[in-house]
Every structure is written in structure tokens, then in C-alpha cells.
Amino acid sequence: MKVLALLTLLAAPQEPASSLEELLVEASSASPAAVLQLADANALGLSAEVLDTLSARTASAEGKQLLLISRLQAWADNPAGVERLVELLNPEDLDLSFAALQTLRLPAFYGQEAANSALGVWLSNQVAEDFPSLWVEGQYTLFKSSTGAHRRAALRNLRSVLMSEDLSLRTSAVLALGRSGSPLGADEVETLQKIADGIGSDAVLAEALLQQVDQQQRFRSKIAALQALKSGTAERQAADDDALAVIEELLLRVKTQHMEGDKFTEEELLAAAADGMLRRLDPHSTYFSSEEYGQFVFDMTQAYGGIGAYVNTVDNVFTILRPIYSGPAYAAGLLSGDKILSVDGWSTADQPNDEIIKRLKGEPGTDVVLEVYRPGWGESKDYAIERARIKLPTLQSEILPGGILYLELLDFSEDVALMIVRAINDAQDQGPLNGVVLDVRNNPGGYLLEAVQICDVFLPKGKVVVTTKSRSGSDESYETRVGPLVSEDVPLAILINEYSASASEIVAGALSIHGRAVTVGARTYGKGSVQNVFPMTVEQDEKFEDSSSAGPRNYIHDEWEDFEDANGNNKYDYGSRVKLTIAYYYLPDGSTIHTRRDREGRITDPGGVAPDREVEFPEMSFAVVRELNRILAEDPLRPYAERIFTEDKELALELAVNDLRDFKRYPGWDDFFNSLGTDLEPQEVRRWVRRTLRAVVSDARGKVFPGNGFQGDYVEDPQLQEAIRSVMEQASLTYDNVPEYAELIAQG
Fold this sequence. Notes:
By secondary structure, the chain is α+β, with helices and mostly antiparallel strands. The chain has six domains: 1-109, no CATH class; 112-231; 236-261; 303-391, PDZ domain (Pdz3 Domain), CATH 2.30.42; 396-528 and 592-614, Alpha-Beta Complex (2-enoyl-CoA Hydratase, Chain A, domain 1), CATH 3.90.226.10; 622-710, no CATH class. 45% of the residues lie in helices and 14% in strands. The strands form six sheets. Strands 10-11-12-15-16-21 form a six-stranded mixed sheet, sandwiched between helices. Strands 1, 13, 14, 17 and 18 form a five-stranded antiparallel sheet that branches. A four-stranded antiparallel sheet has the order 6-5-7-8, covered by helices on one side. Strand 7 and strand 8 (381-386) form a beta hairpin. Helix 19 (416-430) packs parallel to helix 20 (448-458). It starts with a helix and ends in a 17-residue tail after the last helix. The relative contact order is 0.06.
């Protein structure tokens, strides 16, 4: 790191210069590091009269001359005007910037309020991700050179980026926290350990900081033991022992007396006790066992190495339900309904799904041979497929009639904001963009920064998206940073329902409050709280080899990577984690989306985001559901849909996109409907035939239809229809312009 080079001045001592003027001339042509050496070598050789004039010279000096004069002031113990050093901070001249920050950290400048305030203001106007090393070094300097509020703010700012997606920023920030000497949390120590496991100067520094942490912990333990002896803590320790005795007795009684006690391990019961403790606090704090945390990691990254397909056992045969159309299975020719009979010669017959999937997955770039049978083939065929890193789709998009872009956002995992930007750019390349419908129904949330960046696509720069408030009293405000990708003239509607939570509510609430979007649907879930995941020190992750063969190191164990099987169970085990609610979200108008509860867990305020246009999704009657279950169990719909597709692919695609709710357009409809022997209305049956047809057509077009069932289908989805209606009103589109909607949306 550059800062380490600046901290170590190895140049040989220089001869003192005869005058300040000569030093200033020499500084003008020297490197910033050489200027520091020049000042340090000559300060003692300047007369007292010259040193007394430094403050006056500070006001007019610039660049490296200002750096030299400020450095000389440190030796003269006369730090007036040093706030001007902040003017030297420039991302385009990092060497000069680092030299200025190092000078601000000299003891003579400690506690200079003018300089610290100037540095704090400069940092508040910077985006950490734009210039990570300079931003972090600035925060570290603010911590080292200040007291009180500035010092606390610097630590808070460094910790605020530890969840950033920018690896270099996270690394620099945690190293700066270690260098600060402040107590580190368990998660921060864990991050330092990951850095120390690497190579290079960062790894060397991290290892040295970990040794300091270990020494500090031993020292604190000794002090705590001495304090316990002096203050009579033994009585409180006894009380703690009594509390633990309750847990121990419960475990014993369960194992020896409960009818099901022999079916659970002690680890499972303790995990349940820990989870129950956290659930007593709020519904979102939880305890992750090793297996649960592994699933949590997968859910947040949505990536693995494999063939790319949704699979399950159907009629006792392992089957591809649907290929992921960007994955290698589909590229090799595999389709929905294909049966996988063997994997690398190993038969899948009567094998558990988990074991088959384990064999399908593997390191990207390796091959797997599948024996596949497709209904209608005379015999099975072998497919050699090269595994790839598969990222499960989190965004589905479709350009609807009238140039309206429909975006179905499944969650706020990695890079979804970038995916939305790409989808909008692609849509604009294909023609005028007359409106956007963002669907976050059933979206449970995810990364906060992704929510902020999505708002950045639609809002001007500097707009507050959300503020977090914690028990420490520190508020963190998140604002848009770039400016809108989509013109404010392009209408935006957001679909929400009772299962839209967390980041979904932030996006819908912020865009609605700023007047940028119309929200449609039902009141959202009401999860306005921030959770952080912390590692438990009592149970560590097993060590593994974080390979880079399939891309950059991700600090997450992938299934193909070697690991140290500490407990001999032949699988990788994460350590346990605890997810704690640490703050609440507040929208730009000061309101909170958080559902309030009393101590007994009863809801006192439902929270959530209320839609601007409330539209209910119709529910089917019990009689209709019962009859549909009978028909679907016999499964006559798929053969009929496949027959339509086989006989007329163009018609099948047309019906799948929009059948105008006309069942007479389906070939052989009367014979098919009569064969069902049902008292359902033909329109109800048509809906389900078309739903099946859309799944069949997806393979042919290499793209899934967005939405879930009837949700996301503008022919059948009343909430989406209302969103389209809102967009058309704002865009001054008429149904004459978009005849596809004339019979569907205009009439409601």
C-alpha cells in the first residue's frame, strides 16, 4: 500500500538548506515523498526567525510548497492554518494526497479543530467506492488526528463500508480499523483472518494486526479477572451458572424423558434454544446453525457450479423441470421434461435428489456426462456438458405492448441494480421506452445498497432513499449518487403486495414519496429493520482452499473446493452465526415501514407501504379449487398444450403471449373441453391451459415468461393491468395506439 511506503522514510539524511526560499524551490520539483524527507531533514537547520514566518507563508502557498511549509510547522510546534492541507486532497494525485494526510497525523496537529472539520467536510462529499484507498486513509487520519465526535464518526464511517460489494474498499477499511487500535468485533477479526490467509502486503499487515488483537484480548482477560476479584463478581458469576444449569437440566430431561428426545442431537436442541431466545426479541433476529447459514449464503449469492437446470423427481424418474436458459444444459440441447437416467455412468434410479444434484454440480470447466431420455425417443442419448458457474436469475424482463418494460425483481441479491440498468438499456435499444413497471411482489428483500442503487436509476442525484437509526444514536443516510438513467418523463409503476418486504419496501416507499412512481397492489409486509450477521466465536468455519479457477476469490466455500474436514462428516461445515436486528429504516419523509409490536409480540402498528392504487388479486372459490385439483391430478392440460405447440408453433407462441381470452382460438377446443367432464366455466379452463402452454413455449423461445403463474401475465393479472393503465395515462397512450390492450385493460 502507498501509505506504508510513505510511513517508512528510508532516504539518507540530507544536508540542511541555507534558507526557506531554497527549500521551496527544491520542493516544487520533488516528489511528495521527497518533500516530506526534505522538511524532516531541514527543520532543525532553519533559524527561529524563519520558522516564525511559516504561518504567514501558509496562506499563499500551494501544492508541494504548502506541504513543505505545513510539515515544517509540525517541527516548529506552530500549526496555524494547517486546515489548508485538506485542499491538497485530490483523487487524481494520490501521492500528494497521502503525503498531506500523513502530515495531518503528526502529533503537533492533533486536536486541531479547524483541520479536522475541514477533513470531515471533504470526506462527507466523497463516495467511498469511487476512490477506496484515499477515502479510507482520510477516515483513518480523521480518527488519529481528532477527538470526540470526529473520532467516533471516522470509526462509524469505516464500519459502514464493511458490507460494501467493493472488495478493495472492505479490505482497506478493516485494515484501517485494525491500525486504529480500536477494539474489533468478531466479524472484523474474521475478515482480517481472511486477508491474512492471502498473499502480499495486505496479508502481512493483517497478520501483524491479528497478533496485536490476540495480545489485547489476553491483556483484557487478565484485567477482567482482576476486576472480578476486587468487585465481587463471583456472585454474578454464580447467577450466570444457575441460568446455564436450567439449560443443562432441560437437555437432560428431553434426552431421558421426552417421547421424541432420542431423535434430536444436543446441538440441534441448543440451536433451537438460541433461536427461541432471539425470536423473543423480534421476528427477524435468528440463530443460524451450520446448515442454515450455508443455505443463507447460497440464497444471497444465488450462484453455484453445475449444468444450470431446475430438477426434481417426477413419477419416480429424475427430471429437468426447466433448464436455465443461460446455462450449459440448455445450450447442449436439454429441454423441460427430459429424464436424467445416469450421471457419469452412475444410475439415478431410486437415488435421493440431494445425492444426484451433488453429482451434477462441480467445478466450472469440468465435464459431466448425462444419459438422457426424452418422451418420444426410441432410446436414451448421452450428453457431455461442461459445467459453468451458474447464477440463478433474480430479474426477469419483458417488453410489453406499447413499449412498456416489465421488470420482475425476485430479490435484492448481488448485482440486481446492474441487471436492471442492462435491461433498460436493451429495451431502449429496441425502440422508444414509454413506461416501466417494476414488480417487487413476493420479494423478501436483500442487500440495502442494491435498493439504493435501483432508486439511483430513477431519481436525481442527492435524493435521500433511506435513513437507518440504531441504539448507538448514529444515523446513516443513504442518497442517490449518480442521477437518473431513465428520464423523469418516462412513467414508473411499482407492483407491491403483502409479501413485499425490507428492500422492496424501501424502493417502493422512496420512489413513491419522491413522486417518481405510482405504487399498485396491496400494503407491504412491514419489515423496516436492519439485520447484520455476526460469526459466533464458539464455532468456526472449517478452513478451505479458496480457488480462483472460476473467477476471483469470493471467500465463500464452493462445492468443488478442498477443505479441512475437522469433524470427519465428509462435508464442509460453516460455523454458526447470529443475525441481529441492529437498526430501523426510515423513509425520506421520516416515516418508518417497520411493523411495531409490544413485548408479547402483538402488532400495534402494521407498518408497511400502502399502495397509491389498491387492487386485490382475486381468490378462487373452494369449489373451483377442488375441481381444478382433480383435473390437474389427471394432467390432461400439458398433452393438449404440447399438441398445440407441435402442430402450430407460431399459433402456440401467439396464444402464450396474448390469447385475448378467447378459448375458441385453441384448436380442437370443444373436444378437449368436453373430454374433461367438468362443470368449470370454459374461461377458467382456458386460463390454466394457457398457463401450461406458456411453460411449453418457454423452451422454444429460450426465455421464461416473467411472473409467477398468473402474476406477471398482463392478460390475467389485474394488478399488472392497473399498473399498465397508470403508465398509459401518464404517457398519454390511448388504446387505439395499443390494440393488444383494447379488450383487456381498457375494460378492466
